[in-house]
Design brief:
With about 120 residues, the chain is mainly alpha-helical. The protein is built from 4 helices and no strands. Helix 2 packs antiparallel against helix 4.
């Protein structure tokens, strides 16, 4: 009984989305929201990369204040920043590729249900 109810609910939920997916405007807006979500995930992942690359002492600046008193050299900061931007650009590129593929599929006309 519960399985039949769940199956009916899933079918009812899938039908409106199937009809709406044929609408190109709806499809492209879905692609746009997926791109925003992908970019947010990429931004978060790139920020977390810095934490993974550092040692445990560097993650907690209060753990070893004497060694951090000198700070980072300008060269080191520039290299870190360049590396950060490179990783972020690569991840954003993946998001853009997914977005372009998605919008291309939105522009492909749907085939009639009757066949060829």
């Amino acid at each position: 009984m519960i399985r039949a109810f769940v199956l009916a609910a899933l079918c009812a939920a899938a039908l409106p989305s199937a009809w709406a997916a044929e609408d190109a405007g709806f499809c492209k807006s879905m692609c746009g929201s997926e791109r925003q979500e992908c970019r947010a995930t990429a931004r978060k992942a790139t920020g977390n990369d810095d934490l993974l690359e550092r040692g445990t002492v560097e993650k907690n600046p209060f753990a070893n204040t004497a060694s951090h008193a000198q700070g980072q050299s300008e060269q080191m900061r520039a290299a870190d920043q360049a590396s950060f931007h490179k990783r972020q650009s690569e991840r954003y590129g993946v998001c853009e590729d997914k977005y372009l593929r998605c919008t291309r599929t939105c522009s492909i006309p749907a085939k009639p249900a009757g066949g060829a």
